[in-house]
């Protein structure tokens, strides 16, 4: 078996079993444990696994990749709603808002107070329907429609975003890591979110507890670009200290 075929086989095994051990893979493929560790390192760089002591685990992000928007919307729904409530007061202090197309951010947007005039810019096709009954100025970015994510993407989307300057950007992601920053699994989606960040005075990042210490394929932001980190439960002390050091307002 070639190294390329072995790597593909390991990928299939971890996708099926969710967790693999170096010792077991070494015996199965009749190669050294060091060879398996190098294979797992390659898969980690691609955002497919996170290495742990003695093996590796499938990234949470990859378990949900390719699932349709409305199916993803039901995953960790209570956690998403909790994060939305946590940030509600700060959100309603903002007049101009840029929002990504994630299911998490959609829950945040549902709590927007429309008693005063606000402007929302988004690449979410779902937002046009969900926010239709609110007294908001809603600007769609336009762009190429992705039927799976129900989002708008591509050059038109990015060019439209450049026309707006907003108070705050609301985004989610697939994984966060102290060393590697904020990551997403879809390069096209990540490019849109990166463009959004350039137009916002502040960035609020929403991640539930399952995304901490996880990697994904595409690097999206460094930590010095993030102003708020909102999650559904108290992280460990290392993350609390990390946010303090980087002057990020941690909310849970």
Structure description:
By secondary structure, this protein is an alpha/beta fold. 40% of the residues lie in helices and 24% in strands. The protein is built from eleven helices and 15 strands. It has a seven-stranded parallel sheet with strand order 6-5-4-9-12-14-15, with helices on both faces. The chain has a three-stranded antiparallel sheet with strand order 1-3-2. Helix 2 packs across helix 3 and helix 6 (77-91) packs across helix 7 (103-109). It is elongated and about 65 Å long.
Write the H/E string, N to C: HEHHEEHHHEHEHEEEHEEEHEEEHE
Largest sheet: 7 strands, parallel
State the separation between the terminal residues, measured CA to CA: 48 Å
Averaged pLDDT, please? 93
- Oligomer description: single chain
In spatial order, strands of the major sheet run 6-5-4-9-12-14-15
Radius of gyration: 19 Å
Question: Which structural class fits the helix and strand makeup?
Answer: alpha/beta
Weakly predicted, low-confidence segments: none
Strand content range: 15-25%
Helix content: 40-55%
Task: Using the alpha-carbon principal axes, give the shape.
Answer: elongated
Task: Provide tags for this entry.
252 residues, alpha/beta, 7-stranded parallel beta sheet, 3-stranded antiparallel beta sheet, 11 helices, 40% helix, elongated
Detail the topology: elements first, then pairings:
Layout: H1 3-17, E1 19-21, H2 22-29, H3 33-45, E2 49-52, E3 55-58, H4 60-64, H5 69-72, H6 77-91, E4 96-99, H7 103-109, E5 119-122, H8 125-130, E6 137-140, E7 144-146, E8 151-153, H9 155-161, E9 166-172, E10 175-177, E11 181-184, H10 187-198, E12 200-206, E13 218-221, E14 228-230, H11 237-245, E15 249-251
Helix pairs in contact: 2-3, 6-7
